[in-house]
Amino acid sequence: NNIYQGLALINNLAPKSEATIVSYGERLSSRIVTALIDGAVRFNSRKYIKTETKHNKYILADEATDKLIHEYFSTNKERIVVAPGFISSDKESGETTNLGRGGSDYTACLIGAALQAEEIQIWTDIDGMHNNDPRFVEGTHPVRQLHFAEAAELAYFGAKILHPTCIQPARFAGVPVRLLNTMEPSAPGTLINNVMTGGCIKAVAAKENITAIKIVSSRMLLATGFLRKVFDIFETYN
C-alpha cells in the first residue's frame, strides 16, 4: 500500500514539485564533479538559465539567459566551470524549473552559443550520429559531418543520441557542435555545423506510431481564420 501510495503521489505531482524533485540528480552530481576537479567552480544553472511558463510548459527566456551567462563568464574566464544541465528557474518567481528531455545537451548549447565558443562537445556512448539506427540495422557507420537542419531532422525521426531542439541555440549562433564517444575518446565523432553538402544521402531514419490527421471541410473556402481555429485546438490540448 505504501509503495502504491508513493507512486500515486509521484504521478500526480504538480509541475513545480516535480521540477524541484527531478533537479536533485544534477545538483548533487555537479557538486561531486566540481570537488573532483582541481580549481573548478560550480555554475548554478538555476540562477543563470531562465524560463517562463506558457500553456503549462517551461520555455526558455532567451534574452534573460544570454545576459546572465555573459555576466557570469566575464568574471570567470580562467576557471574550469562545472554546470549542472537540465535545470533552470522561472525568471519572475525564481522557482526551480527544467528544460525537458535533452536538457543537459541544451544547457551546453545555451552556454556555448551565448559565449560564441569555438566548439560545443557532447559526449555520449556512441561514435557520433550513424547513417541508420544501430539498434535495428547491422553494419551502420558514423556520419562525420551534418548540417544543423539535417541533425535536427534525424533526431526528430528517431536518432536518440540528440534531442531535435537542443542544438538550435548553437545553430543560430553559428557555433559547431561535435558528438563524441566516451567509450572511444580518439574517435572523430560527428561534426554538426552550418555547412550543407549536396548530392548525397547521409542517413536514413524512421519514426513509428505516427498519427496523421486529415481535415476536410467545404467551409474552408474563402473563410478567413479557419486554419487558425484548427491550430488553436492543437495548441490548447498540446
Can you offer a commentary on this structure?
There is one protein chain. The protein is an alpha/beta fold. Helices cover 36% and strands 16% of the residues. It contains nine helices and ten strands. It has helices at 2-11, 15-22, 24-36, 45-48, 62-73, 103-114, 148-156, 168-173, 226-237, and strands at 40-42, 50-54, 57-60, 80-82, 87-90, 96-98, 120-124, 145-147, 177-181, 190-193. The chain has a four-stranded mixed beta sheet with strand order 3-2-5-6. Strand 5 and strand 6 form a beta hairpin. It is globular and about 70 Å long. The model has no long low-confidence stretch (mean pLDDT 85).
Keywords:
9 helices, alpha/beta, single chain, 238 residues, 36% helix, 4-stranded mixed β-sheet
Give the structure's gist in a few sentences.
It contains 9 helices and 10 strands. The protein has 238 residues and is of the alpha/beta class. The longest helix has 13 residues.
Secondary structure blueprint with pairings:
Layout: H1 2-11, H2 15-22, H3 24-36, E1 40-42, H4 45-48, E2 50-54, E3 57-60, H5 62-73, E4 80-82, E5 87-90, E6 96-98, H6 103-114, E7 120-124, E8 145-147, H7 148-156, H8 168-173, E9 177-181, E10 190-193, H9 226-237
Parallel strand pairs: 1-4, 2-5, 7-9, 8-10
Antiparallel strand pairs: 2-3, 5-6, 9-10
How many distinct beta strands? 10
Distance from first to last alpha carbon:
33 Å
Task: Point out poorly predicted stretches.
Answer: none
- Helix content estimate: 25-40%
**Shape by Cα distribution:** globular
Please report the number of helical segments. Answer: 9
